[in-house]
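Input.
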Amino acid sequence: MRIVAGRWRGRTLAAPPGRDTRPTADRVRQALFDMLLHAPWGGRAAVAGAAVLDAFAGTGALGLEALSRGAGSAAFMESDPAALAALRANIAACRAEASCTVLAADATRPPPGQPSRLLFLDPPYGRDLVPRAVAALRAAGWIAPGALLVAEVGRD
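Output.
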């Protein structure tokens, strides 16, 4: 797994062993950011300078990809200790500590936060976590007016 584009293009990202963390594949991230940049509702402004929240962050691949492509800052929420270790290692490998905040938190019970313009939610499948997380993040102040939310859900 690597950063697909931007200033950290090609940078390899670490992932914890096992199947508990499923990093978003390179080609999926490429397709996602292509949509963000080229869709009529997107464009460069969707990412450039944005405050980003990568909820259920895992390795942080989505938030780090956004930073690599020009986002202004990224907050990462993750509760699994092994994933948190990989996330912190990936932020350090990109030398992105100054623009990153790591929260050892559950996105369905987040601490109060600053509004984000671009949010990524990639929770474990089959637990109906996206609606619960969106409601909790909104209540905690994480979702800016007009924010763009990108959620990955299982095929089912």
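The longest helix spans residues 26-38.
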